[in-house]
Input
Amino acid sequence: MKKKDKRRDVAPPEPPPSGFSRRNFIQTLGLAGVSATLPLTQGCGTSESGPDIPAEGLGPEPVEIALTVNGQDVKLKVEPRVTLLDALRDHLKLGSADPVDLTGTKRVCDRGSCGACTLQIDGKTVYSCTTLAVEAQGREIRTVEGLATNGKLHPLQEEFVECDGLMCGFCTPGFIVSGAACLEKNPNATRDEIRRALDGNICRCGTQSRALEACEKAARRMKGRR
Amino acid sequence: MPYQWPAKRTVIGTGIPRLDGALKVTGKAKYSFDRNLPGLLHAKILRCPHAHAKITALDLAPAEAMAGVKAVHVVKNVGAELRYAGDEIAAVAAETEEQARDAIRAVKVSFEVLPFEWSEPNAFAKGGQSKTDEKGNVEEALAKADGTIEGSYSGPVITHVCLESHGLVAWWKADDELLVYASTQAVHKTAGDLKSDPLFKSIPNLKVTCETPFMGGGFGSKFGPDIQGVVAAQLARKAKRPVKLMLERDEEHWTGGNRPSFFATVKAGATKAGKLTAFDAVTFGTGGHSGGAEFPLPYIYAPETRRRKHTNVAVNAGDRRALRAPGHPQGCLVTEQVMDDLAHQLGLDPLEFRLKNIPDEGVFKTLKPIYETEVKLGAEKIQWKKFWHPRGDKTAGPIKRGLGCALNTWGGGAGQAQATCTIHPDGSVEAACGSQDLGTGTVTLVPLVAAEILGLQVKDVTGKVGSSIYPPAGGSGGSTSCGGVSVAVGVAAMKARDLLFEQVAPKLDAKPGDLQAVGGKIVATNGKSLSWKQACAMLGRQPITGAGDRKEGDTKDTEGKTVATMSSQGVGGAQFADVSVDVETGVVKVNKIVAVADCGMVMNRLLCESQVYGGVIGALNSALFEERRLDPKSGLMLNPDLEWYKLAGHSDIPEIDVHLLDYPERGVIGIGEPPYIPGAAAIANAVANAVGVRVAEIPFTPRRILSALAKK
Output
């Protein structure tokens, strides 16, 4: 029996006196309100094993958070309203003073409709532009930078290059993360299943035909490996 | 001897995966959007929230006082007229993006809201500047024709939707040295425009460099720094820190450019024998608050008697920019639907009717046999004989299937470009050209060309592209980059090779003219040879460099006229669509597209085909999904996003069958625009063929299909 989530019993604080906006709303309300009011959110804010959020909510000041990104633990300080996407792209400094930043995950629509920001949280694909960074604490975050192992590209990455499943490349990380999640779950995925897995990713250059070809070729290789 | 491509080619025409592919698929490629410099500030722009207004008061002090704000800049001050929702007013730079957004909201601004126009037909009804082109007596020709049609054809404004938005990161490395990482189709022009901007041109000895190793799509909309680029540079100068200013998605739709709408009413006539004899068109469209909406009409076909009255109308919305083959898709959509309607009216074979009316003059003399080849091949691949039927699928059930075809043409001549090719004593080779890679493959093209000339493999050459520090090249637009870059790099590599030949010839007991660079060797006609490395080692300590200009690929003919020998222009293409339409729901499903493309000498088959796939998918988007919607009540764009501004998902993509016609004797011709042109018209004709009525307006949403069927 899991313990009851206290967050749900919390009444939201008074709305800001003026200048009401969605971002101010998120900024001051903290997490308790977010998952109920943003149906597009695919994150894990409502999950019972999520981070421990104080009853009065977080912020608006920056808070210390800890994330596990591609197997590495990182600490960063962000305002609670900062999305996981922006935290990874702009606020993360892995390790030393050298600003190693994870900008492979792209921001395109910033509202959960194009898939460019797709990453995996605990193996599930998530739009990181509609997931708050504070929500992702205690989860395994896997970005496009985490797909290659020991410098060897993921079979899907190799096939994207070989089949030319990319042009400008800005949608490509999202396609690859979505495709990899689909194939890792089911290397026997049919053409239509792969299509559906990629339906949430928009490409403007028109790489879809060859991205599909790359996924099918990678699937054959991944099956062979097992 | 004019410079020429080698008769036997081993690298050109093969399929080389893009060399920056691994960086792109691993997320390591750093786009402008990804540049996080130490001390970076984030900037946002305050934009006009009304379709038409005047600024009556503006106070940036509250924004300046906000936490994290480091600089502010006024773009338009009190009294300025703002002509569309999204027009720039002011900008701020702050420590974080969130703080910059907060600060923009804190700016105190008030407006006098002015009347606005949102609708092209309304604006047209009020009049406007129009222009009439006329040849012969159209009324007479229409009266004499064996058959005539009258139809209306239209399509809305669509936006570019570059996935990486417009913008740049500006960094003043010194008081007189500006470095920008810009998402641009023109690194040299972007650097040049910043240097000559009124805000900066008085800075003595100003040096501006534009770096664009990767960029996330342009499609014709990114040829300079734009207002936001200048603003970012100015904020960076004020704050003495690097500033990132990339547009957000809604700003991108408002201000990042768009393709003009088109509205056409056409009367046309032809003879029973299939000769197009009359074409009478009244057209209008909008390119925004000040942009025009011209497009070629009639397209390809040139009936002896024709009249066209065109009016550019203004609406209070963002201005147009070139979008992949500017004007051509609109001209193609109108003309090719007219041709189809006429063929139907007169009971003519729509393919023969088209071929019969290809003009016999100018570029079409060359293209006529190419069109014939393309139509024959395309018809075979789409199974025209098996599946085409007279208009209206008569089979039972709600799913109606139809086929359609359309032709296109485009120039694609070589654009201005210079390049260098350097051979080092250790055998390494660098080829540099200040062009840029929009996803089109320039990064791969540059070493590919040098490798061909030097008898090496692509991996043996380091290509340098995407920076204004490299030899100047024009913007990547109009399908001019492939030709310009290929020729400039080709000539540079030939010159470097010839310098190498001079140095190694004595060693091979041969004359430089008796040497060849093939298969990683320098081979003399006397049979003696050196490996590439051995030959380069003879350079001693000095590398050798050849410099090439695209113009050197031209020569003079006997009449003294300049003719291109290594590149060319003028292509023809044909596309065929197979669609199914559910006449109960109005949903159109494209089953298959066959694209036959002519692009002269194919440089990199794999990447060239990708351009064609991309063109086909882009055209499908415009035929089925894309539409900028303005609110009649407010004039605001209703869908400045990616959920209501629709683009195809993976499940919407049909089988696409790409065929490249390789004509190496014609030299290099660009392929970016041509395959984007005819797809929408082919789909439109397939829809009419399926459902039996002309659906006059793209995109073919269920509402439009059902409305057209209701009028049947």
Q: What stands out?
A: Helices of chain A lie at 22-29, 31-37, 84-91, 155-163, 172-185, 191-198, 208-225. Chain A has seven helices and five strands. Chain A touches chain B through 64 residues (CB under 8 Å). Residues 40-146 of chain A form a domain with the Ubiquitin-like (UB roll) fold (CATH 3.10.20.30).
